[in-house]
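It would be a great kindness if you could assist me with a short task in structural biology. The matter concerns a single protein, recorded as an amino acid sequence and a row of backbone structure tokens. Could you please explain, in whatever detail you think fit, how the structure tokens follow from the sequence? Thank you for your consideration; the sequence and its tokens are set out here:
___
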Amino acid sequence: MKTLTDQQRLFLVDTIQLYEAWHSATLQVRSHRYGMKWLKSGNGEYLVRLSDAKGNGKSLGPRSAETEETYDKFTAGKARAEARLKATTARLTDQAQLNKALRLGRIPVMAAKILRELDLSAARDDFRIVGTHALYAYESMAAVHFMQELLASGDIDLLNDPRKNLRVVSSRLDGDGLLGLLRRVDKSFEAMTENSDRAINDHGFMVDLIIPQQAIHCNEPIRLAPADLTAAEVPNLQWLANAPAVVEVAIAANGLPVRMKVPDPRAFLIHKSWLSNQVDRDPLKKQRDLHQAEILFEAIKNYLPQYELQQEHLKYLPKKVINAWFDEISKSTHE
């Protein structure tokens, strides 16, 4: 584990601030995306606010001084938003080059593009990153770089909590589901098999849609759209779903920032430690789980004192799992 230099820390802070400005400007532009126009109807004209690319929209009333003012304000607002986005994009592009020069870039570009598209959607808070990619958020929080071999991964795990209203989540994804969002990033993404929980693109990058294991009476497949991925149920994943969420900005390999929503690092740490002790876990994965837990423990202990490792802060985890972890830490401390 390597701590960031003062210059790297400064660039990271600057990038986070720039990203917030760029994100706000991008959403402003998207809010003007379909525009307004005057439509003739009968003997008059009506102002219509378009809601999709097909020309559907809502009438705002007949042409009048009031609707003309509404149209002028909308047009002016659109121009301001586009100018602001152009300026913040240019600044962010320049900052990305500086970040690359200082070797701040970490997250694989494809994963970063997916997370950025998710962040720009209305469903930005409906998913958590829970696999190996979550470590990029934790190292950014601690202002350190973990060993690269602990971070390498050809897939990203997105956790959805099915206790939320699925219709609402689906509408936030424009009714296209997670697969539709992925195809906005790369048109080659497709489900690996029928009813698969995994999408893959032409370059072999994979995205898994996972959920906590459901009650036995819940036997309906979980999809966010009719032709979407079918979420895979993973035992004990409710620990990460119930944990407080942390939002952090990390840097992609191309130098651009990425917003990441991940579970509390203490929950990730104990979950990984627990996985490393499961007898039915793949031995290769068990060793990797253990090393990831160890490095995150060191990061929390040395760089994230606000995340106290006290049992009263971990009540969303099963008591026996918490006790087992503290017993293990106590033994290793006295050896």
In short: The two ends are 23 Å apart (CA to CA). The longest strand covers residues 44-50. The first helix runs from residue 6 to 31.
